[in-house]
Each structure stands twice: as C-alpha cells, then as structure tokens.
Amino acid sequence: MLQHETRTIDLGIEGMTCASCVSRVEKRLGRIEGVEAEVNLATEKARVSFPSTTSIDDLLEAVRAAGYTARMPTVEEASTPTTGDSQAGAASAAASDPLMTRFVISAVLTAPVVVLSMAPALQFTYWQWLSLVLAAPVVVWGGWPFHRAAAANLGRGSLTMDTLVSLGTLTAFAWSLWSLFFGTAGMPGMTHEWSFGVRGAPGGDIYLEVAAGVITVLLLGRVLEARSKRRAGQSLRTLLELAPREVTVLRGEGSEPREERVPIAALRPGDRFVVRPGERIAADGIVALGEAGVDESMLTGEPAPVDVQPGSTVTAATIVHGGRLVVAAERVGADTRLAQIARLVEDAQLGKSRAQRLADRISAVFVPIVIALAVATAIVWVATGSPAEQAITAAVAVLVIACPCALGLATPMAVLVGTGRGAERGILITGPDALDRAGAVDTILLDKTGTLTTGRMSLTGVTTVADSVGTESAAALALAAALERGSEHPIARAIVDGADAAAPGWRGAQVSDFRAHAGLGVTGVVDDVAAAAGRSAFLVELGYRMPVSLEQRAAASDDTQVAVGEDGEVVALIEVGDRVRDGARATVDRLRALGLRPALVTGDAERPAARVAATLGIDEVHAGVSPEGKLEIVRREQADGRRVAMVGDGVNDAAALAAADLGIAMGGGSDAAASASDLALTRDEPGAIADAISLARATLGTIKGNLFWAFAYNVAAIPLAAAGVLNPMIAGAAMAFSSVFVVLNSLRLRRA
Questions:
Q1: What is the percent of the chain with per-residue pLDDT over 70, rounded to a whole number?
Q2: Which of 380, 411, 430, 581 has its CA 20 to 30 A from that of 485?
Q3: Which of 295, 433, 447, 604 is catalytic?
C-alpha cells in the first residue's frame, strides 16, 4: 500500500464564538480522508495533520464550508509559535470593544422599558409607544449578533442557543407590534373589536421588556466571555516577550572583533554574541568567554543563580548577573528551549477541550422541541374548533415562556458574582469552564519555590566557631555584608539584608582592595584585616583554614552556604535559602479536607525538597523536575484516571498549568503562569489556593442550581402555556420571575 507523507500546519480560524463552533470545524476537516484537526478557541487556530494528497486549498475550503474563514500562517507565524497567538489576541480585543458598546447602549435603552412595564404607577398615556421606540433598536441592532448567528446556523442545519434567543425575542417583539398596531395595547379607550379598524385583532398585551431585556442580559454574557477568551490567549504572548528583541553580535576575527547590535531574527547558529550584566541571553548556546551568575528562575523556578564559565551551557531568556559573557549560539529562534516551552503550552491547550457549554448542547434538542410544541399547540387548538386568535395566543405563550432568559442568566450571573467575590479575596477566575474543572479535581500538584516557599533567598542561619577568639554571628554577618555590599547577586542581597537586621552598624566598616571572583566569592581588606566570603573550597584555596566543626555543618546543611574568613581562618558559615511561607502547612491540611491528594513538584534538589515536604506534611515528592518533566507528571497522573490541579508561579510551570485539568497561578508569579492558568491568585499567600478551590466549587454549585431551575421551569410551564392556562402576559411574568430567581440565587455567592 502506498504511504503518503503527512504534513502539519496551523491555520488561523476566524468567526468562532463557542465550543460548538470548534466541534463543527473539527468535524468538517475530519471528513477529508487522512485529515486530523485540533482547534483552539482561545488562539483561534486549527492544527491540521494531512496527507500529501490533500492540498491546503482543500483545507481552507472545508473550513469555509463549515461557515468560518481560514487563513494561512505568515512566514513569521510559522517560525515562531507565539506570534500568531499575539495577532489572535489583538483580534479578540478589537472584537470585544464593539460588543461592549452594543451592550452599554442596549442597557441604557432597556432600563426605562423594563421600569415602565413593571411599574404601573409610572405608566402614562401612550407609554407603550415610547417603549417601542426604545426597545426596537435593542431587539434589531443589539440582538443582531444573535440573529445573524442563528440564521447562519440554520443555513447549516444546526440549532443552538442563538436560535432560541433570536426566535424568542423576535416572537415577543412581533407579538408586541401586532398588539400595538392592531390590538388594544396602542390606543387606550379603543374597544377590542375596532382598534385601528381591524375586527378580531388580538388583545393588548405587549412584551417589549421581554424582548429587550433578554438581549441586554445575554450581551452582558458575551462581553464577559470575550474578556475571558482574550485573557486565556495571553500566555503564549507573555512567553514570547521574554526573549530579547536585539542582540550584540561579535563580527570579524582576531583579538579585537567589533560589536554590532542586530535584531534577534538576524542571529544565526555559530554566531558569538555578548551578554552584559542585567541583560537576557538571546539564544541557547555555550559560554565562550567570561564568568557570571545566571538567573534561570524563569525555567527552573529556583531563586539561586547558576554560576557559569567557559564551556557552560546557557539558555535563551535567562538573565546574567555579575559578569560579562560571550556566548556561541547553538539554537536560535523557534529552536530555543523558550520556544519549545511555548510550543508545549500551545500543544497542551490544543490537546483538550475546555469549553463545556451545557446549555448549548441541551438547546440543540430543546429548541426544535419548543418550536414543534408551539406549532402543535396552534394546530390542536384550531383542530378542536377554537378561534385562530386563541390558537395563536397559546402558541405565542409557549414561545414566550420558553424564551431562555433564565437559561442565559444561569451561568453569566453566577460567574459575575463569583468572580466579583473572588476579586475581593484576591482570586481571579477565568470563566465557567474553569469552575467545571475545579469541581472534579482530586489531585493537586504544588510547586515549591514561590508557591509554598517565598521564592526569595534569605538568611536562614549563621554557624560560628566556638574558639575563634570571640567571633559571634553578628560580627560574622557584618564582615560578610561589608564585602558583599556592592554585589547584586541574590545571595549577597540576602546576606546584606540579614546583617541590616542583626548587625545594623556594619555599614561603617571600611573596605579596600576589593575583588570579585565570578562564581567563587569576594576578597578584600575590612578595617585593615584581610577577609574573604564565598565558596568553602575557594577560601581553602586562598589559604584560609577550615575548622572541622564548620566542615561538618556544611555537609549536613541543605541550604546554600557562604564561608566567611578573616586573618587566615574561616570563622563562620552563613546559610541562605528559601523559607516556607506562613500558612503553608494549614493550606495543605485544608486541601486534604477538600478531598484533594497533595504532591510536591519542584525543580530543586532532593534534599531541600524533602525538607520542605516534611515541614508541610506532604508524603509524595517529585524533585529535580524540569518544565518538561512537570508536564509529563501531569499527563501521567491524568493517564491514571486522576483529575489534576497544578499550582505554580513561574514560566517553568506554564506548560504544566495549561495541561492540568485546573491550573492555579500564585500571586507574585510570572505573567506566563497567570495567563496559562484557570485560577490566578493576586493574593500572594498559600491560603488563597484553598480559598480559590472552595469559591470555584461554590460558584459551580450555583451554576448547576441555576441551570436546573431554568430547565425545570420550562418543563413545568410549557404544558400550562400550551393548555391555555397561561396567556402570554402571565407567561412573560413567569419568565421574568425565573430570571429574578436566578439572579437572587447567584447573589448568595457574595457571602461565600
């Protein structure tokens, strides 16, 4: 059998609004033999694998046949996975602005219509005509997105929530027009039979507030949805922004090559480039010249910089401290580790469906049933000898009472109140899909640094030598701080901060002959005494004697150590490390009470990770894990049938956050982590993790209660309307009551 080569391409998809759109595009593409497609609503992309026998034009035509627009990626998008997402995010932001304008204008016009309709005491002569003038633009212009989508779906043989919204509001509006022009509603004092000279016209009930109110409320839901979608697509753009836009390349051979500043796109493998202190490394490569500390926290999540020297491997987007490096580029652009992580985030998002629209799925059956019931109602009434007017009235009552106002309010109102309450508590919820997953998770993976620990190097201890001629902790700290005062290294800052608290008089020390030894330590003369601070081996190499007691302490400690020596002897061992956050143990206990199994996942070494886990009472520990490894752990847990929540704060956590059933980003973390998550915590404390899950579950419970009421109300009320027990006015009142109930039920979340 002839085997055909398989290609993969990312297509930009325009016009999608919900999960049913994603499914429709995937199904249409999947009808082509050999084609597999995964569509991402957040990035508005379709990743399509297709055989060489299929042309790209065939794919574009399939998307057009589904009712959407597809476009080929540009050269820049094809080479960098995040660029296209940036354009998609910009498009989403642009689309939400006119939607907000539509909502605001509709709300302003709808408010007086609702007030006049519901408050008889405020009604004046011909108030109905003013209501018509105000409601007409809302129904026609404000509701145009729903009417247009309903018509488009109908043309493809599909019925969705848009169909029900359009049908219900237009029916209520048409009935109101008929009553105003041909019934008694428009001319107070006119008789039923002779209003506007039309004998046998229907009565005077109008439902303009129903038509306008439903449109306005559902526009609010669309605005909230657009904002959540735009925020969800931010993660890849944030990753892209970490890479520098320009790089200093060395040109020419010889002892003094010239430096040339060029765009990052001009960098090629094999080029040598310069990185100065505070700058980000432009590409993955090998250090050719220089020594420095490199902050890799955006990859590893760990605060301590890694010391590098000629021959060391460095990674794009990491930051250089305390030295100048010349790096030989090996992997550039889309081949760097940063770009690979960005691709992992994108793949994780494409590999699963997050938008679960229960109301849309049920409405696919609900809408045709309601339409059929309305038609059947009219036929039965006519068949039993009733006047056509009575048959139309009963049929309209069925449509009006089935108008999905409560159904449309069920999720947006609960999300609106729940997210508002969350904002007060420092919890940001991205939308209903995040709440769905929060209710199902049973396992929670916790990053260590920046999540359960502070993520900042700080002083953890000072060990001195008992027989070192009266040397004490404060004196040792003062000596080390005097040497380290000019350094920007995180370890140096931790020592200086510790000295400020324990020995505030240290700043008066006089330092001369200062020298920094990159990756090793510092030396100098402090108050006329030769001194040094740095690695123990470095001080021993300089001739300082290391007491046995300090050697034993160094072997037993899990923290980063700085030896302090003066006058030929190491007098103290200063330890700096990452401290467990206040409240972290109580948070772990609360998570267990919520039915979650906690596990620690960190890029840190095994010993410090085990120490933190023991402090917090966590039995399961995964240490020394890379960003790719964290993603693999999430997928392995999911393969075992568990629903996984992932908590992290760094770029190194972004892929795992996106792949997890529920991603939770800690406050104070990176933008990439927050954007890839479902719950983002602006309150930078561990207790917010348990608060977020509790609030999300409470909001989900409210949504389910609202949806149950919305459907149960229709199931109970539609038969009464069909039987003629409820006329359209009572049906409209019942529908309004169902909406009020949903709103009041949602407002209970303010006390959550």
A1: 76
A2: 581
A3: 447
